[in-house]
Design brief:
This is YfhL family 4Fe-4S dicluster ferredoxin. The protein has helices at 49-53, 70-82; strands at residues 3-5, 24-26, 31-33, 60-62. The protein has 86 residues and is α+β, with helices and mostly antiparallel strands. It has one domain (3-85): 2-Layer Sandwich (Alpha-Beta Plaits), CATH 3.30.70.20.
C-alpha cells in the first residue's frame, strides 16, 4: 500500500529528498505522497526511507485508502523505472 503523511507533519523537509520515486511533494499545507508513485521503497531499499528519516513518530503511515500487496508494489516499481525496457 502507498504511504500517507498525516497532519503531524512539521514540514521539516527530511522526507522529500529521500524518496527514490519522487512521490513526495509539498501540498497546500504539508508534504503529500502521490500514491501512484509510492512503492514504499520496494525495489530500492528494505524499508521506506521517508519513514526512517522522519523525526516525528507515526507521521508517515500506511494509507488505508491505497492497499497494495508487495507484488503490486514491485509491479509499480517496474513500470516506473523500467517501462522503457518492457
Amino acid at each position: 500500500m502507498a504511504l500517507l503523511i498525516t497532519k503531524r507533519c512539521i514540514n521539516c523537509d527530511m522526507c522529500e529528498p529521500e524518496c527514490p520515486n519522487q512521490a513526495i511533494a509539498m501540498g497546500a499545507e504539508i508534504y503529500e505522497i502521490n500514491p501512484d508513485l509510492c512503492t514504499e521503497c520496494v525495489g530500492h531499499y528494505d524499508e521506506p526511507t521517508c519513514m526512517k528519516v522522519c523525526p516525528i513518530d507515526n507521521t508517515i503511515i500506511h494509507d488505508p485508502a491505497h492497499k497494495e500487496s508487495n507484488e503490486q508494489l514491485w509491479d509499480k516499481f517496474v513500470l516506473l523505472h523500467h517501462s522503457d525496457k518492457l
